[in-house]
Specification:
With 140 residues, the protein is an alpha+beta fold. It has one domain. It contains 2 helices and 5 strands; from the N terminus they run H-E-E-E-H-E-E. Strands 1-2-3-5-4 form a 5-stranded antiparallel β-sheet, covered by helices on one side. The longest helix has 56 residues. The protein starts with a helix and ends with a strand.
Length: 140
């Protein structure tokens, strides 16, 4: 095979290898992000359900998460997915917000879920992503 043809074949092979590595890396990043989002959902889905069940039964949201234990929830989830958990009843008295500070996706982020999912336009524009009712913000 002439030298020029070898150079062309090697160049094409290098481009193919680079493309495969790039696609593999992109796939791995997307899968890793999804898996880590599912860790948050898996850990806090029972809390969301307990909050909703408590509110349906009593007609008002709990004033704190400890009211959910043990009747609605065996325990409040903690590490390794959460650095901190914050809960508050919002000013209208019927809506609540659950905030989870976590580095599960590699950097500090704030995951926020509300009963009515009534996020402001500013909150939506400042969020970096959203999934399963959660809005995610970069921690500063």
């Amino acid at each position: 095979m002439p030298r020029r043809n070898k150079w062309i074949v090697r160049s094409v092979a290098l481009v193919v290898v680079i493309a495969i590595v790039s696609l593999g890396h992109g796939f791995w990043k997307a899968w890793s992000r999804f898996a880590n989002e599912e860790k948050i959902c898996g850990a806090f889905h029972p809390v969301i359900n307990a909050l909703q069940e408590f509110q349906e039964k009593t007609g008002a949201p709990p004033t704190n998460l400890t009211q959910l234990v043990p009747e609605y929830l065996p325990k409040i989830p903690a590490a390794p997915v959460a650095n901190a958990i914050e809960y508050q009843v919002l000013s209208d008295g019927t809506n609540w917000q659950l905030s989870v500070r976590s580095s599960v996706r590699g950097k500090p982020e704030l995951f926020v879920q509300r009963l009515y999912r009534d996020y402001s336009a500013l909150e939506l524009s400042n969020s970096i992503t959203g999934f399963h009712g959660w809005l995610v913000f970069t921690e500063r």
